[in-house]
Amino acid sequence: MDAKDFVEIDGSYLEGGGQVLRNALSLSCILGKPVRVVKIRANRPKPGLSHQHLHGLNLLRDIANADVVGNTLLSTEVEFTPRSIGGDTYHVDTQTAASITLIYQMALPVLLFAGRPSRLYVSGGTNVAFAPQVEYMEQVLLPNLKHFGVGFDLQVQQYGFYPSGKGSCQLDVQPVEKLLAGQFLDFGHLQLVSGVAFCAGRLPRTIATDMQQTAQREIHRLWPHQMCSIEAVKHLPEKARQNGAGILMTAHTSGGCVLGSATLGEKRVDGRLLGSDASCQLVEYIRKEICVDAHMQDQLIIYMALAVGRSSMRTGPLTNHTRTAIHVAEQLTGVQFDVEVESSGQTLVTCEGLGQLNRML
Ligand SMILES: Nc1ncnc2c1ncn2[C@@H]1O[C@H](COP(=O)(O)OP(=O)(O)OP(=O)(O)O)[C@@H](O)[C@H]1O
Predict the structure, then answer these.
(1) Could you tell me the distance, in angstroms and rounded to a whole number, from the CA of residue 152 to the centre of ligand 1?
(2) Contact status, residue 249 vs residue 230, Cβ threshold 8 Å
(3) Whose CA is nearest to atom 27 of ligand 1?
(4) 3-39 burial by CB neighbour count: b if 16+ within 10 A, else e?
(5) Region 161-176: what's the mean pLDDT?
(6) RNA 3'-terminal phosphate cyclase domain spans which residues (predicted)?
(7) Facing residues of 338 across strands?
(8) Which fold has domain 85-176?
(9) Is the pLDDT of residue 132 over 80?
(10) What is the residue with the minimal CA distance to atom 15 of ligand 1?
(11) Domain assignments of the chain as residue spans, ordered by start
């Protein structure tokens, strides 16, 4: 293939992390456009493809029957030429703590445009830093994607944490004919705060209850009559062999918004601190009455770009991840995102989607 046949994507743009690659390859599969991604993860301390990105890339190669050049660890340049999107059962074993949810982040939009239902088994980390925790994918991403007419079923077979991974999940995806335009505009009022605080391995159950109680106390300090129900769980040994701890809090509003805030324990786990950090973040979202949280922002961009009709989200200040996702989506789909800071201080992001139809159904 000639150099001119590829759309060139600059992996060093703005955030310059793995997300440029994920979004570019997902869109390449869905639109049937060959892409060359250069300077991959140029803004990270160890640039190039890490395990997560390489496994995700090879998975998309299999899903879209693509030709690939440059799919080796630490590679900083990849050429990807997709064919048709199959839909099948796929297995990915990263043999590391590579984020399972980020591999799903890359594959999910593609499998929605497949010709038949798919099942995707991935082994790696279910709860790792700088990635959505698996609970966030179930409890925050899923209800947000319902606005686009998208559903999936996610089952955690085993939890896995940094450094050894060994978690495993199963994702079932039904294809769609098209994505509906998503509207995230009306916060309404806060109805419920829910969530889960977990610990595993040799960590005592009190870590989970410390997270739970600190988080609930903070919500009740501010809103004494607020319904707030956070579950404290110690994972059974057969579900999680290593040490790990974290919390996800979610806010549900009368306007149909679901916002999430998650923290994860590292070497020294302080349950109170984790609970306090998660609740502070969630409280900030609730106070600002935004409809989409800071991490969901960038994850919705690809769906807004592909939907039929005008999608809109009211959110907080745009993150670099979101600006980067917008740039990649505009480059590959030709749609335009409009960003406006409103007098309330909220940021309104709108986009007339491409109206991509599933060519495989
Ligand atoms: N606490 C969190 N909750 C939910 N989503 C998160 C959280 N932290 C990060 N994310 C999401 O994970 C993704 C991380 O993308 P990013 O490119 O930084 O990571 P990456 O692929 O691991 O690459 P790199 O190693 O280059 O940072 C983004 O979609 C971001 O919104």
Answers:
(1) 20
(2) yes
(3) 17
(4) eeebeebbbbbbbbbbbbbbbbbbbbbbbebbbbbbb
(5) 97
(6) 13-339
(7) 350
(8) UDP-n-acetylglucosamine1-carboxyvinyl-transferase; Chain (3.65.10)
(9) yes
(10) 19
(11) 1-84, 85-176, 190-288
